[in-house]
# Entry
Amino acid sequence: MVVPAILYGLVSFAIPESPRCLISVGRNEAAKAVLAEVEDKHTYLDARVREIEVNLRKEHKPTFKDLLGRVGFLPVVWIGIGLSALQQLVGINVIFYCSASLWQSVGIDPTSSFFYSFTPIINIIGTVIAMIFVDRIGRRPLLLIGSAGVTVSLALAAWAFSYKSGSGTNISIPKTQGTVALVAAHAFVLFFALSWGVVVWVLLGEMLPGRIRAAALGVAASAQWIANWAVTVTFPTLSDWDLSGAYVIYPASPCSRSSSS
# Structure
């Protein structure tokens, strides 16, 4: 992991400065050089700089106070927080963080198996599907399709894991139920990725007013990480209590979102 980290650090030196940042501190010529490189509009550089200057003067830098309303936050901010939290409360990261236990439960050694890398591949495929269809199908239909698929997948996983024996990471499932669990888990990842994994970020960018968008996105992202942490730390306890029951709890999130969409 050190090698990609070093490469990432070295490549970051090649990232150009933000033209908006340069113009905001009076470095217009440097901003023109960056604009010429990334936009390839050499004849319109002065006009682009003036456009950015006008936008900067019009902009209102959001503060936390701007997000406050009668009941803590403004309603639109609460909606953003809810979307972000529910995206994680569906339990998607349980599959990513605990996938080794899932493979082991059906008798596959994840440390030497191709299947261990199959989950992120499914996630990438779902993300690409969302990118292709988010504008063609629309946000709401894609979310409803994803919610329905996630709910069914989690319900099948809950049924399969009701046959498990053992505890902790040393669990096993009969062959038939194990196959269902594997298919359901990856169907879950696929349906999540092609809907809520991507579309929630599109929704947050479109629904939040420009005046408060930057600050509100920060709050929504914080809620998402808090929910992610809550799911991660509670899953081991839930799985020890009743693994099947844990997978029954998570479908409540997409069901509630489907009804509210």
Q: What stands out?
A: The CA atoms of residues 157 and 181 lie 5 Å apart. The mean pLDDT is 80.
